[in-house]
């Protein structure tokens, strides 16, 4: 019975450990629950639906009308009767330049919303990854702070013991106590940072996570960017979504000029109708009976003068086109800056990883040497405490540099416009299972 209970507890513990969420799972949950992505999707869908509304003005318009009137006429000899009417009317635009231009504008606006939705999807990959590794970074920071606290606690106890036997001065005890108090304060701050990072992750998905799959540092192997910065910029000029969206905005502004100029052009419409009128009075009337009428015709309208409104609308559209052209140039410069800065971030993170790896090795050696010197009296307890703190700071810096490298890589691909879910999957494969 005891063996069965023990086996059950082991299985339950293993199941609890297996419940750690990984990056891909959190991203998939975010795609369903993140308000920014859902808003962009809804606005995209609304924009595509508006195409149907815009196209409707080019299609036949059919109306059905009906009416019933009851009347009394005469003074002495009342004549009472009713008249009923029914009709069907059809109109079809034969030539309306503005309707065609409006349709083109609506289609481009829908395409712009599609680009915006894709932008949000790419941004979500970066946001989810950033939030995920912010939690891991905060967890690492807390673990390093706690490890430092434990090490300082042991050194504090040893210092007290050495003081009691006369091997250390009281100042050493005070120094160790001060370092321990600092470690306690650092732990409080680290816990708060971890809680805040978890809240930021919850904001993406609406869910709370107790455990996240950590980075597999044994298989983690950072690589330099696949090409030089100029190569990434060439890709960005073709694929960057912000740049693509602004190009569409400039095209829309050009179409708006055509739409305004269409106010000077004539319109031609086809109109047809079929109407029936039935009259029925109590006394005989020459108006009794049914009258059927049909009509068909073409209406032509040419604007001659509208007080200068159309001319003003054209000028406004032209100014707006200039503004959108300047925004396109601004977008190009921003993309260029983002590509180069993201590229620099990747290379800097790569270099810092290598530097911090060496720093950890050096800090470990320094701590060992300082502890040995303290034992023989050539180093003080302050030296030992500082060396301990420097070691755990170096480990934390190395951990942060790894996460910065991962996020910087995604930001570089986002700036280039070729960031996909596969990039996130590749990162997810580098997590512990």
TrEMBL record:
GO cellular component, one term: cell outer membrane
Main location: membrane
Signal peptide extent: 1-20
UniProt superkingdom: Bacteria
The keyword Isomerase is assigned to this record: no
InterPro entries per the UniProt record, alphabetical: OMP_efflux, T1SS_OMP_TolC, TolC, TolC-like
One MF term in the entry's GO annotations: porin activity
Entry keyword annotation includes Transport: yes
UniProt cross-references to Gene3D superfamilies, sorted A to Z: Outer membrane efflux proteins (OEP)
Keywords: Cell outer membrane, Membrane, Signal, Transmembrane, Transmembrane beta strand, Transport
Compartments in which it is found: Cell outer membrane
Record NCBIfam families: PRK09465.1 (NF007002), type_I_sec_TolC (TIGR01844)
Family: Belongs to the outer membrane factor (OMF) (TC 1.B.17) family.
Protein name: Outer membrane channel protein TolC
């Amino acid at each position: 019975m005891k063996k069965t209970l023990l086996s059950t507890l082991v299985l339950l513990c293993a199941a609890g450990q297996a419940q750690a969420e990984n990056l891909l799972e959190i991203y998939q949950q975010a795609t369903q629950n993140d308000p920014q992505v859902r808003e962009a999707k809804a606005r995209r869908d609304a924009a595509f639906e508006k195409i149907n509304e815009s196209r409707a003005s080019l299609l036949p318009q059919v109306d059905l009308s009906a009416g019933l009137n009851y009347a009394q006429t005469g003074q002495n000899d009342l004549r009472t009767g009713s008249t009923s009417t029914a009709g069907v009317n059809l109109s079809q635009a034969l030539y309306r330049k503005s309707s065609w231009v409006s349709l083109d504008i609506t289609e481009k606006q829908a395409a712009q919303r599609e680009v915006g939705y894709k932008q949000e999807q790419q941004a979500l990959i970066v946001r989810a990854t950033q939030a995920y590794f912010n939690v891991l970074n905060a967890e690492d920071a807390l673990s390093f702070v706690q490890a430092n606290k434990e090490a300082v606690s042991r050194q504090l106890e040893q210092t007290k013991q050495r003081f009691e036997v006369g091997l250390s001065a009281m100042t050493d005890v005070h120094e160790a106590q001060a370092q321990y108090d600092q470690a306690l304060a650092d732990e409080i701050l680290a816990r708060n940072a971890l809680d805040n990072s978890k809240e930021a992750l919850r904001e993406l998905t609406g869910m709370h996570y107790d455990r996240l799959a950590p980075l597999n540092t044994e298989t983690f192997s950072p690589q330099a960017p696949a090409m030089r910065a100029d190569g990434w910029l060439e890709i960005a000029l073709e694929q960057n979504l912000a740049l693509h969206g602004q190009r569409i905005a400039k095209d829309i502004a050009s179409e708006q000029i055509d739409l305004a100029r269409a106010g000077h052009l004539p319109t031609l419409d086809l109109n047809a109708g079929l109407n029936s009128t039935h009259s029925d009075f109590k006394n005989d009337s020459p108006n009794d009976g049914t009258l059927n009428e049909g009509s068909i015709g073409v209406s032509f309208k040419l604007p001659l003068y509208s007080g200068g409104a159309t001319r003003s609308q054209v000028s406004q559209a032209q100014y707006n086109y200039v503004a959108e052209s300047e925004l396109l140039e601004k977008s190009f410069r921003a993309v260029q800056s983002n590509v180069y800065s993201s590229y620099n971030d990747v290379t800097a993170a790569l270099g810092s990883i290598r530097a911090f790896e060496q720093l950890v090795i050096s800090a470990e050696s320094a701590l060992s040497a300082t502890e040995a010197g303290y034992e023989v009296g050539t180093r003080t307890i302050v030296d030992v405490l500082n060396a301990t703190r420097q070691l755990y700071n170096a480990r934390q810096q190395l951990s942060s540099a790894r996460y910065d490298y991962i996020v910087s890589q995604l930001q570089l691909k986002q700036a280039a416009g070729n960031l996909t879910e596969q990039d996130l999957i590749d990162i997810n494969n580098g997590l512990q299972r």
